[in-house]
Amino acid sequence: MQFTNGTVQVFILLGFEVGQLQRLLILIFFTLLYMLTMAENITIITLVVLDTHLARLPMYILLSNFSWLEICYVNTNIPQMLLDLELSNKIISFSSCFLQFYIFSSLGSTECFFLSSMALDRYLVICHPLRYPQIMSPNFCYILVIASWVLGFLVNIVPVTLISKLSFCGPNIIDHFLCDHGPIMALACPPIPKALIISQIFIDAAVVLGNLMFVVLSYSSVIVTLMKNSSKGNRVKSFSTISFHLLVVTLFYGPLAGIYMNPGDADPNVTKVATLCYTAITPFLNPMIYCLRNDQMKEALLRLWRRKAVFLKSKMDRVKKRKGKGNI
């Protein structure tokens, strides 16, 4: 262990304590999952940016930025995890650990705000359809996007800074594959400052529980409105869409609640699996959940393929004409 004035200077990430064959299988699985996740989310961003119709729709402005968030999320921890699976040296410096901790926590908070923004969009389009175009303008969507990013990164500055000022007397072994709140706090020397406890309670209450309550209330209002006002055919279609949105919310908040509701008694292996669910599995599933039965995304993909086919055909025609002139 390396110490300076009683404080740990490096941490060791235990990661997955399994045999060599299991490590290889985990490495292959998550490498493929990482590549597919990147491809899916980049495809969504590309479609929304290149398709002029989707680029003007509020839901797809939010969805494309949500895909960018998922790309940032997986790149915060998955490459490091894959590297640790490949190498026996799992040492991470104090500063690198806390940088990962801050970015990881901030992206998680940002996702909470994004899910609330998308719930607001669904609430307005179903409960207030006449006012929806005026309220959810593209400019307002970009305001929601910027606010989600700014608030997500601002709320974690104080608690992460306070945690970094604690004394870490050892051991310096983190029983996880990334630097997260629970495993880091387990290594801190007591007593824990009250200011840190208060700031953490504030984040849990205001960011996580506050956004979760907003999402629940929004979708509850949507369900009530659909039951009262819509016809049977429209109701089935709308419920199908809402169910996919609720699935995304459940995939994110479910494992998160399991980890942070009882962090002291949580089994490290259960914590690792739950963390993998919302940091690796969920970013892979979200694009499919949102786009698998989405006709507008399928139509945009077809339009993009047609444009590409027309472009290639015109390019080949120009090449043929040049060759024809050269032969003359």
Mean pLDDT: 82
Structural class computed from helices and strand pairing: mainly alpha
Tell me the overall shape: globular
The count of β-strands is 5
Strand content: under 5%
User: How large is the count of helical segments?
Assistant: 11
Give the radius of gyration: 24 Å
Characterize the largest beta sheet: strand count, sense, and whether it forms a barrel.
3 strands, mixed
The strand line-up of the biggest sheet is: 4-3-5
Overview of this structure, please?
This protein has 328 residues and is mainly alpha-helical. The chain is built from 11 helices and 5 strands, in the order E-E-E-H-H-E-H-H-H-H-E-H-H-H-H-H. The protein has helices at residues 20-50, 58-86, 94-127, 132-135, 138-154, 157-164, 181-185, 194-229, 232-260, 268-291, 295-327, and strands at residues 3-4, 7-8, 10-13, 91-93, 173-174.
What descriptive keywords fit this protein?
328 residues; mainly alpha; three-stranded mixed β-sheet; two-stranded antiparallel sheet; 11 helices; 4% strand; disordered N terminus
Secondary structure elements and their pairing?
Layout (H helix, E strand, L loop, with lengths): L2 E2 L2 E2 L1 E4 L6 H31 L7 H29 L4 E3 H34 L4 H4 L2 H17 L2 H8 L8 E2 L6 H5 L8 H36 L2 H29 L7 H24 L3 H33 L1
Parallel strand pairs: 3-5
Antiparallel strand pairs: 1-2, 3-4
Gist of the model:
The protein is mainly alpha-helical and 328 residues long. It has helices spanning 20-50, 58-86, 94-127, 132-135, 138-154, 157-164, 181-185, 194-229, 232-260, 268-291, 295-327; strands spanning 3-4, 7-8, 10-13, 91-93, 173-174.
